[in-house]
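Why this split exists: single-chain examples teach little about how molecules sit against one another. For that reason, every record in the complexes split bundles all components of an assembly together and asks for one structure covering all of them. Below is a record exactly as it appears in the raw files.
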Amino acid sequence: MAPTLEISEPKAAADPMLPVPCRIRRVRNETADTFTWELQPADGPARFAFQPGQFNMLYVFGVGEVPISISGDPADTQSFRHTTRAVGVVTRAMRQLRAGDVLGVRGPFGSAWPIEAAAGRDVVIVAGGIGLAPLRPALCRLLAQRRRYGRIVLLYGARTPQDILFPHELERWRGKFDLEVQVTVDRSADTWRGNVGVVTTLIPCAPFEPANAVALVCGPEVMMRYTVRELQRRGIAADRIHVSMERNMKCAIGFCGHCQYGPAFICKDGPIFPFDRVESIFGKAEV
Amino acid sequence: MKSAPLAVKRSDKAVLQAEDLDMLIQNLRKRGHQVIGPTRREGAIVYEELASAQNLPAGWTDEQDGGTYRLKRRTDGALFGYAVGPHSWKEFVHPPAQRLYRARRNGKQVEFLPETPPAAKCAFLGVRACELNAIAIQDRVFLGGPVVDPGYQSRRQQLFLIAVNCTVAGGTCFCASMNTGPKAASGYDVALTEVMESGRHYFMTEAGTDRGAEVLSQLPLQRATSRQEQIAADMVSQTARRMARQMDTTGIEELFYRNYEHPRWDDVAKRCLTCANCTLVCPTCFCTTVEDTADLTGQHAERWRKWDSCFTLDFSYIAGGSVRSSSRARYRQWLTHKLATWMDQFGTSGCVGCGRCITWCPAAIDLTEEVRALREGGPARGAAPTGKETKP
Ligand SMILES: Cc1cc2nc3c(=O)[nH]c(=O)nc-3n(C[C@H](O)[C@H](O)[C@H](O)COP(=O)(O)OP(=O)(O)OC[C@H]3O[C@@H](n4cnc5c(N)ncnc54)[C@H](O)[C@@H]3O)c2cc1C
Ligand code: SF4
Ligand code: SF4
Ligand code: FES
């Protein structure tokens, strides 16, 4: 029998499905199909706090709403950023918007990268494609508290050199002596002098101590599958590998059912999971 | 024998003559409730607003089996002599379509206009034990987490629930297996058991809450004799013994978690039409999608939330395709969710054994049969699981 729940008086809480109008302050084109927005609540700058890895639901007037990770620096509490790849109806409509336009924002939602729990350890970040966007706040936070961590390694794979996200920032990070940055592309023209090959090929030689490392992984599901396999081969334990999962989302608060992944709701239990929590279904077809 | 109002307390048993049931309906209407209950429409018993006890399907019953539902006359005038039909109460608490908000655009300004919670107070008359459990399950979905659904909360909070214990088991019922019926155990304001014996027709009443006792106390009741109490109790326990179907739920989560690749999923996929009937009639299925509309001026937009089903292709769509594109994967999602992952999510099964999904399946797929097949054809219980199959 289902245990009964006390039905309490309605709380005067804000309607969780109602967005807050936010204004685009700046648009930056990252690649041919990817752009970054800097946003602020439309009624003026207000404190906006989030944890690296969390996402917002962005509503385009009359078109629809999509989950997009927050890609800005968590230290910036005046504005927040999103980096979006235009792939379909809503994200293409988003690309048409300009500075000054207003959209609806709900959030932040979901679990965060385990930045605190990683203190004292090496941190390996593996990103594929747009997957670098939700990892950017994590890297900002790690660098802001650099002394608390061992080695920090960023391994990033993009399809072609033209698809590399945040190239200037990557260049700046690469120049830091306390951060190891390696970038690879799946295929390239002759002008590219960097690595060619999938991102997993960077893992075997990456400089970190597996017994004392935490891995943060975000990218397409197949990429994460091979990445996790390589990281485990290097000896990182399943509970110290963290993956960010993606499913269709219509509410972000556990009501619509769309984001179910086995027993988990990706919107509230995820999107970031320690790998051992999803291991039994990870890679199973059509779950 | 007519009687004056009798003050009853919670869990007192008292007798209400069948011809006085209408007073209960009228009292609730006077208290501002919209009374919703079973009525006969287009060959089925459905839930609609009742103006009086006249609207109840007196003298009707149903015949149900996989893919079959038929009304037929009873030999008596019983008011609740049938099992559950195609409707469930969820449509009144978690409506099929709900506007979430309206948005207004004015130059570079956008404004979001919230919905005001509905004012109507509902009283449900004739809620079966399985359905009380289904309501308790949806409460966990919409009220049990850190975020509460405000619309659901306001509708739910104003509900007055009148349970009716089942004295006939429907052809597809298996509540006894799910421990959800046929007797209403909790979660009601008033519970009724309809009794017809030696020419008498009355209801054994019991209040489950103080407000239930208050409402009952305004009715012409008589104290129940111990013989009457016994007759009513026997009728309900007989129903439990007459369940048409059973489901063995021992170790059911593990059964599903170790059988993601069971060949039975291919077998059921050949029969399943992915029509989504089962999820729509199911009293616990809660999934929704959203729809956006904008008017021609582009200045006004609305966002609506509508029932959805994990049997649609769109349900699991992410850029590039649907995660669950095969009907095998979609049937597996539905049954695994109902009977296994629901427990992890909400601490209760997602199935109350009401049998609707069996009755309303055009292919007569029967989940009790599917569970049996998973048990029999699967790896023997206790056998070493294949591969990594620990529960997440
Ligand atoms: C937690 C999370 C974080 C994300 N972060 C980012 C990010 O930072 N940057 C980025 O570019 N993309 C991100 N995505 C993916 C992004 O949400 C989809 O690309 C987007 O929803 C596609 O919508 P569309 O209408 O343009 O595409 P269409 O293909 O036209 O899709 C139509 C509808 O399907 C649903 N849908 C389609 N694809 C997805 C998807 N991948 N995930 C969820 N729902 C989908 C949406 O409801 C969408 O409105 C994230 C997804 C999730 C779940
Ligand atoms: S799964 Fe079927 S039997 Fe179980 S509650 Fe839903 S409709 Fe009723
Ligand atoms: S069975 Fe399907 S439609 Fe029903 S609640 Fe689960 S996911 Fe939603
Ligand atoms: S996105 Fe709706 S339940 Fe997770």
